[in-house]
Amino acid sequence: MKKLSFYTILCCLAVVCTFSLNSCQEFNIDSQAEFPPLLETDAQSEYAVLAKSPNTIIFNISSNTPWKIESNKNWCVPTPAMSSASSLIAEVSVIMEENPDEQERTAILTITADRIKESKTVTITQAAKGTLLVQGFDDPFPSEGGEATFTITSNKAWKVTSSNQWLTLDKEEGEGNGEKVTITATAKPNTGLKRTATLTIVSEGYETEITATQNGIMLEFAETTDVTFDGGQDKETKTYQVLANVDWQVSSDATWLKVEKSIDGNITATSQSEIYFTTRKAVISLTPTDKTLGIEATTLEVRQAGGSYELNGTPGTIDEATGAITFTEETGNANCRYYINKPRKLAIHKWHFSNIEVDDNRCLNMNCVASPIPGWNFWLGVGANPWTFKYRGGSSNDDYKCTPFDLNKLKALKVSHTYSTPDNKTKAKIEVFIKLEGETDWTQIITTPEYENLFETTGSAGNFPYFGFIAGTAGKKGTMTITSYEVTNIE
C-alpha cells in the first residue's frame, strides 16, 4: 500500500508539471485576446459647457483591447483619438471651440473597442452665445443728486455692480430672457469735486462697463500737451485753460516759474530764468479760495528743458540721463570751455557742481567780456591771476582778491551783477558767493564798489559766459562736473 501510494503521488506531480508547462507556452504576452475584452471609462454620459471660454473636459478610458473615440462635430475634438501601441489606458481631453451662434449646440463622442459590439457615448451640450447689450446714461447726475436709468438686454443671467457707494441700483441681477430691462440708478448729493462711478455688467463670460458721472465742484485744467519750456529762454509764457465753477487760486512750487490768474479766468505761466545742463520741473496747483470746501489741489506738472550751448576746445562728456557735463583738462592751455553765446546786461549766474578735482595750479575761469569793454573776468584757483576778480570798464579797471579755499570742495558758485539799488539804475555792483561741501548758505567772497553802470544795452555786456579750465601745468589733471547753470536776467 505504501509503495502504491508513493507511485501514485509521483504520477500526479508529473501530470501537474506537464500541464503547467503547457500553460506557460499558451498564455504568453501576446495572448491577451484570450481574455474577455473589456472597455471602461469614468466619463459622464452628459456634459454642459459655456459658449465663451468653455472648460476642457477630461476623463479616462481603460481597455484590454485597442479602442478609439470619435466626435460627430468639428468644434468638439477629443485627444488622443485612439489608444497607443504601448498602452491601452489613457487620459482623454476634449477641447471645444467658442459657440458663435445664439442657439445651443450638441456634439456626441462615441467610444468603440475591437471585438466589443456595444459602444459608449458621451453627449456634450454647449450653451448658446450670450447677448449682452447695455445702453448707458445720457447725461451726468446733478450735484444735488437724483435718478437716471440705463438698460440691459441679455439672453443669459446677468449681474451688475457699482464701484462707488454714492451710486445705488434698484436691480442688481436678472434672469436674461432677451427682453430689455430698465434699471434705475440713484446718486447721493455731491458736495465735492466732480466724480465718477463704474458699473460692471457680467453675463456668463461676457463683461462690459459703463461710467456714471456726477457734477460737483469743478476745478481742473483743460487737457494740454504743451508742458515743456525752453531752458534757453527766460520770460517764456504759456497759457493754461482752467475749467471751474468756484473761485480759485493758483500757485507754483518752483521759483523759476511764475504763475498768475488772468482776467479771462485762465493761467499764465512764465519762466523766470534760463537753465542749462539739466531739466527741471514745477507743479502748478489750483485750490479753491474757500478753504472750507475741503477740496484737494488739482495739479499740472510742467518742465523746463536744458538750453543749448556750444563747446570749445576739448569736448566735455555729457550724461545722457541727467544732462550734466564733465570737463577734463590735462594740457597747459585753456582748451576746455562752454559758451552760451547770448548777450547779457545785468544778471545773476549760478553754477552747481557734483564734483571738482584739481591739482597743481589748475584753476576755473569765468568770463563776461564785451567788445572791447566793459566786462569782467574771474579766476578761481592759482595760476597767472590767482583768486582774482577783474572788472574792466570806464574809469575802473581794478582787481579784487578773494581768500583762497579748497577748490575741490566747491559745490555751488553765484555771480550777481545787479543794480546797487532797484530804484537807482545808474549804479551797479558785482558780488560773488560760494557754497562748499556740507554748506547750505551762501558765503560772500567778493564785493566790488559801486560803479557807473556802463552796460546800457544787452549787447554791450558781451556774450557770457565762457566757463571752464584755464592755464595749469601740462600733465596735471583737472576734472569738473557741472550739474546745472542758471541765469536770471535782471534787465
Automatic annotation (TrEMBL):
Domain spans labelled BACON: 66-127, 157-215, 231-287
CDD domains, alphabetized: BACON
One Pfam family named in its UniProt record: BACON_2
Keyword tags: Signal
Domain of life: Bacteria
Signal sequence, start to end: 1-23
Protein known as: BACON domain-containing protein
Organism: Bacteroides caccae
Lineage: Bacteria, Pseudomonadati, Bacteroidota, Bacteroidia, Bacteroidales
